[in-house]
Write a structure and sequence with these properties.
about 60 residues; alpha+beta; 2 domains; two-stranded parallel sheet; 4 helices; 2 strands; Alcohol dehydrogenase
């Protein structure tokens, strides 16, 4: 994970540390950040519309 963090700016690292601490403290849950869930088997059919052109998508997950 540290090698991935090095690829990003210092600000990203600081934000990541803050988010990790909030999650550790129970003040932030991953479900609070997810706005959309996509099925792995059908994501390809609607990718452009539902992901690329979707201005309301903040964080999405692909379920398997």
């Amino acid at each position: 994970m540290l090698s991935v963090i090095r690829l990003f700016s210092v600000f990203f690292k600081q934000d990541l540390v803050k988010v990790q601490q909030l999650m550790t403290d129970g003040k932030l849950r991953a479900s609070m950040m997810l706005t959309h869930t996509f099925d792995f088997n059908t994501i390809g059919e609607h990718y452009q519309e539902q992901v690329v052109n979707n201005k309301g998508l903040l964080k999405g997950i692909i379920s398997f």
